[in-house]
Give the backbone structure.
Amino acid sequence: MREVLIVGCGNIAGGFDAGRGADMPPFTHAGAFAQHPDFVVTACVDPDDAQRAAFAERWQVGEDAASIEALAAEPGRFAVISICSPTRFHARHVDAALALRPQLIFCEKPVAASAAETRALAQRCAAAGVLLAVNYTRRWATDVARLARELKEGAWGTVRAASGVYTKGVVHNGGHMIDLLDMLLGEIDFVGAGAPSFDFWDDDPSVPALLASRAGVPITLAIGDARDYALFELTLVTERGAVVMLDGGQRWVVRRVGDSDTFAGYRSLGGSEYRAGEYDEAMRAAVANIAAALDDGAPLASGPDNALAAQTLCETIRDAALAGSASRRTMQ
């Protein structure tokens, strides 16, 4: 049985599963590790005493401390250390985790406050021989992986365009969208950015943007407002139909092309086929992938390379939007 340390005891660490049954698909690190037979969460860290105590009780964690250093654990004890703390603490916590010599660090995204810092942390993990998994969750969703294969194999023909909409910060939640586009369409280039909207984070606005895949697929990103509701949806327009991700991947709509029943000689999209998504299984699949990486050297579905690519592009979008906003203010 491999021991797991969880750093940060908030929602993604275990809170989202607090009221869910033990046999339901897990949405959190603790929930996913608890359901895997090869792992046991034996320690947790959080400076908030009440939050840490509630986490330890809910997940039956026998050892807890206010910091990684205060835990005073022996190096090599933990096979996996999950970093679930706020982003501004990630660099400090990754370095402290490396001192404990785990086999793998499972870090929330973004890995650090800047792409440069993420690159440096990834290099330190590699130098220490520690695997780094990064929680771009949809990389582990089986239906997203299946769609990526279908697109690559030409099952949908040529992709004509993609359009997405998101909320809650271009680096934080927009990073999921950029990484998803990279997974489905290949490398993504920046074209232009619109006006920033500070709908959740003080330092990370949501930004509409124009992008393009290296294969020439035009991509439009729109934004909602997190103060209204959460939103994360993507539409792919292809030669053979349209594929729409709804509710962050919990539902999908597929429309296939065919001859028009109304206008002779025209082709049109048929009726909507609604499908349940497989996003709810992503965290369970992530921990299974981590186990396979430790047991058999299987490649991680989401690691430092795709994480760094997504964060770098997100920062480019953010910085262009902020520069444009400052320029507009100067001209007024």
Observations:
- The chain has a mean pLDDT of 95.
- The CA atoms of residues 157 and 239 lie 5 Å apart.
- The chain has nine helices and 15 strands.
